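quick one before i forget lol
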Amino acid sequence: MHGNTSGLRPAQLKALGNLYRRRIEPGRIGSPELARNLAELSDDIRREVSVLIDRRGRVISVSVADAKGAELPDLRLGEHRLAGFHLLHTHPRGGVLSKGDLSTLFLKRLDAVSAIEVRNEGQPGLVHTAHLTPPGTVGEEEDWRVLDPVQSFQIDDFDLGAQVSALEEEIARAARTREAKKDRERAILVQIDQGEFDAEERLEELSELARTAGAEVVHKELVYRRHLKAGTLVGAGKLEELTSKAYHLDADLLIFGQELGPAQAREIEAATGLKVLDRTQLILDIFALHAQGVESRLQVELAQLRYMKPRLLGAGAQLSRIGGSAGSAAGGAIGTRGPGETKLELDRRRINDRLSFLEKQLESVAVRREERRKGRARNDVPVISIVGYTNAGKSTLLNAFTHAAEEPRRVLAENKLFATLRPTSRQGFIEGIGPVIFTDTVGFIRDLPKDLTRAFRATLEEIGDADVLLHVVDVAGPGADTRLDAVNRILEDLGFREMPTVIALNKAEAADPDVLEREAERTGGIPVSALKSLGLTELKEALADAVGQVQRQEFASREEARERAAEYR
């Protein structure tokens, strides 16, 4: 027995307990006798009474509550099956099925939900029933079909068993058809707008991230919330809407633009029945997908383990205090007594050991990279580091500069975020300077997860060995100014903001002329098209000027040092 039973008399509690003994014919909604018992008891205690009935006609749960508060087993029989239970409850004040009744039917995938109107002196009145409809049903505006009400003595006329069998068969058939056509996970994206001016742009970027990860985006939603809900960010009502969208669009993935805590992710998954990811997990997945070199793979695994570690512990952090103590007699402190090391502790120790191993491996990689950098410095060849927001066209520009049209010199360039992760160096030539080294770096992104920032810091620090930075900006897409500012913030965090920089306004052939003119005037950038090889001559001239100025400053510094040394001698 469940729900609020406080204040009930012993006779009323006994009547509730007697409901467990009621049996109805399998495949029926209820029986006239059960309807009468429920109506009399509901009128007596002046509350809603709910019973959950399985397909064999047994009452398995009794609750003094409405449909939303009724005790339901935490059981999912798969996406092509219903729960195997139907809910029969009373409406002491009369009325049709409520929104809460229908929401419970849909979210819990019940076989059906029925409400008995209670009339004067506890007499049962009309019985209202609804059942689910398959996704994509023509002519149905909702996720359910509400049947015409019947009198309580006709409650056992409707063949619920046949309806459920037909419904499950139809759901399974539709699912098989969709599965045959579906080659990618189908995702619903949610970006919460808390008043940011670039919320829509962030949603579009989330869509690009999902596409790069291999998902098919079937729905995007911008949800305005000035204050986030503690457990679910968007609230139960919005989650119900998203679950309905997923049901009709055959989506199996829900991606949030905000970072979710472990408890939030679990609560959203429990409410929707969908796989839930956040933006950080999505970026980590893309990095893992595209990591090619040894260093990139090590860094990605390091970032994933750092992200996973607190989520592995989650709400069970208090369990990490348990130690082998043999009880208070062994002198264990309060809160630390227990059976010994738990599986949680073992998993955490394995992660710590792996983290330590990866960090040592990366240290050795960093030493080898430092040797290569010293070799380039001894050769006195100018180095130009190409930086910019992800998918700005850095790799395409590198290929255009070095005439690397084919393998093995050609650098991977795709219309995807984070297509390349490891820094790649190629030798080129600039008129008036001679041979130079162009280095393509990993793409930047705003709000880069801190675990990834930490993992790729050593890679990004190679920028500091460059003579000149070439900052590539995608001027064709919306929000070019915000992306440029995001890259500048990262450069400032790394201490490279004051380095000599040339800005290339890439994809100029597809940009709005007014936007291109405004950005050129604001940044002093040079319009180019790496894909069409337009404006490269002007860009090389600007790079030659920047490198020449650096060389002149270095020459002047060396001459000054030489003069001081001569004076000292």
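fyi The chain has 15 helices and 20 strands.
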